[in-house]
Amino acid sequence: MPLANRNLLLIDVLRRQRRPITGRALAAEVGISIRTLYRDIRVLVGQGVPIEGEAGIGYVLRPGFLLPPLMFTPDEIEALALGARFVGEHSDSRLTESARQALAKILAVLPQDTSDHLRDLGLFVGPVTMDATEAAALPTIREALRTEVFLSFSYTGRTGRFSERRVKPIAIGFFQQARVLAAWCETRDDIRHFRIDRMAGLLLSNQRYRPARRRLLHLWKQKEGIPDQH
Amino acid sequence: MPLANRNLLLIDVLRRQRRPITGRALAAEVGISIRTLYRDIRVLVGQGVPIEGEAGIGYVLRPGFLLPPLMFTPDEIEALALGARFVGEHSDSRLTESARQALAKILAVLPQDTSDHLRDLGLFVGPVTMDATEAAALPTIREALRTEVFLSFSYTGRTGRFSERRVKPIAIGFFQQARVLAAWCETRDDIRHFRIDRMAGLLLSNQRYRPARRRLLHLWKQKEGIPDQH
DNA sequence: AGGGCCACTGCCAAGTTCCGGCAGCAGCCT
DNA sequence: AGGCTGCTGCCGGAACTTGGCAGTGGCCCT
Asked: What crossing angle do the helices spanning B34-46 and B3-15 adopt, rounded to 10°?
């Protein structure tokens, strides 16, 4: 087995563990000796893979993915850089930070003249008007999307009408004027859209909703006429 | 020398050639035998590196970069994916296609459950109003930025005032309402901003301007109070 | 504290892979 | 056609990897 494939297999096995796994078990899973496993772990850690191992406990991998060597064209790198700038202006601070870090990782391994060129990239993203409440709401809503739990909030509609809502969040839409949450609304018993800047008193519940968000997403995309992307 | 480092060096040497380079010269540059070079080329081509070799001519590398194995967190992958969606909605078809291809390359090597998860990513970018003229202008302007040549166009200002302009393009700003070109204007002898949707008769010259765009960019950023990014 | 389990490192012989030289084939250019 | 070039298979020697062993040190439980 090529070493690179073994590395990916190692990481994949680690990724699937719910608790620490011993070196002996991991080596058996991959089909190598314990001595070779120690060597492999050492190489991976040297590559920046966040594997933690403690005597008497075993190995744990922090969430993440090792991408194998990939070839990108200059235009593709440029598109990724511009994309990171868009995320940086339009999203919450956590996603912004993630975009910055991802781009920094790519820049760090590019040839010097190319990363210099990207620093002088002539494509900028203008500032987006988003108040602090909305910026604070975005990570909460993203968390609800990820964990598929109910969200509650009070909503001021277009006409100024005030209402309390309990919803199953489906998606966030980033529009030119506003960020919008698409959700299944229990009050209206149908899919509704809510401008995030008109939400207040956002509450994340710990109750998981059914059906799965994936199902609701499919429904929403059909209803909105949104084609399946990538 | 580790094989991965040698591969990167090989690509770097190839990248710097202006015309085809023979295998013999390339091998000498890297410090390996011709037989080993043939083996390395074979491995790189197998990894998708676009190296072309023809008997009697030599080797040519199509523009691009081989990124070594990189570790990304789930949030970083999510940020890259959202960024690609932003570029897809806000930019010209060429940059859009590059964003799509870059993301597809990343998705292709992620574990299946993760690329599935990204397909169901609940972050969408709403459509942006951009007419066909503007969409057609963007690649031209990007080309002018890249090659640092003059641009000519007729411009209809805010008040309806019509004027002919010859400019040194500095940067494109993607705002919520419009795409804006920041450029040194020869008519006004200063930096000016032009909404791209108000430009007509765009003409790309083949005359290179001085000072270098990098210098103008620095000036513009100072003037606009834009901090150095990433 | 002691014992068992665990991660980790150095060492060495055996096994595996890589390297360079050679021969031969085929393509391109003059 | 001839010279130069890319490409592949083969083989012996060089370099690297592997697994077993011994020893060190940390963590957890009794």
From this structure: 90
